[in-house]
Amino acid sequence: MGTPVLNVHIEKAGYEEDKSTVENIHFSVNAGEMVGLIGPNGAGKSTTIKALLGMLKQFKGQVIFGEREEVQRIKKEESSAHGRGQYAYIPEHPVFYEELTLWEHLEMVARLNQFEGQAFIERATWLVDEFKLTKAMYEKPDSFSKGMQQKLMICIALLIQPKLYIVDEPFIGLDPIAMRRLLQLFEEEKKRGAGILLCTHVLDTAEKICDRFLLLQEGSLLAQGSLRDIRSHAHLQEGSLMDCFYELIEGGDRR
Ligand SMILES: Nc1ncnc2c1ncn2[C@@H]1O[C@H](COP(=O)(O)OP(=O)(O)OP(=O)(O)O)[C@@H](O)[C@H]1O
């Protein structure tokens, strides 16, 4: 097993002080590993990501980025700015500075991460070209299509090559060429030693690329482990991830 790049122990977390949305969520992501966070709509996937990023009003538990105990928090106030430089977050809905061009976004993020000079120019130019954004390099992202905005978020994350990627539903909106390139680059980043926490509904892709899975339902972890573990949990030895998902979520309802 690789070195942990993320250790999560959420006792409870939520949007209001007195109401938990997710509870008892314990997992880790290791270097060189991709972990898929899956579950039905409203299960608490995005809330789990917000909790570990310190974005919620209520949080009780502990989140550790990297090997050292850089983040230990019980209250939200204690959580700000910890773990910076350790991870890149690609949100489901792209977020930009209106007044900055695509290239200026890359420059700003690079500067914040002390990544400058020729090495920055080469990597940024390469990424922009890989995702077919070269023509839009000096334009502002508010005029971009949804997919182009998503690609810029991806370029920003891949630019800084963090130890951990936290990615919320990256596949919806990407064209097949961008999707294929993203999967190849994630594979390369895994080989470099990065860990990836990937939240998605695209289960056939998740089945192919993820090493382990976290299945959330109604704010709790219903199952976790490799596809083999999930199959065993669902009592479906030959089942696809989708079959197991259906059995564990819908089967449970029927029983
Ligand atoms: N900003 C918010 N304020 C209050 N409650 C919220 C907020 N965002 C989400 N919730 C609630 O938290 C619960 C979990 O939502 P969450 O967005 O984490 O689910 P999800 O698993 O990411 O769903 P989806 O697959 O639809 O994106 C839902 O009941 C939802 O209504």
TrEMBL record:
Tell me which UniProt keywords the record has, alphabetically: ATP-binding, Nucleotide-binding, Transport
Name of the protein this chain belongs to: ABC-2 type transport system ATP-binding protein
Residue ranges occupied by any ABC transporter domain in the UniProt entry:
5-243
Membrane-traversing stretches = none
- Signal sequence region: none
Is Kinase included in the keywords of this UniProt record?
A: no
**What PROSITE patterns does this protein map onto?**
ABC_TRANSPORTER_1, ABC_TRANSPORTER_2
Q: A single GO molecular function, which one?
A: ATP binding
PANTHER family, from UniProt?
A: ABC TRANSPORTER ATP-BINDING PROTEIN ALBC-RELATED, ABC-TYPE TRANSPORTER ATP-BINDING PROTEIN ECSA
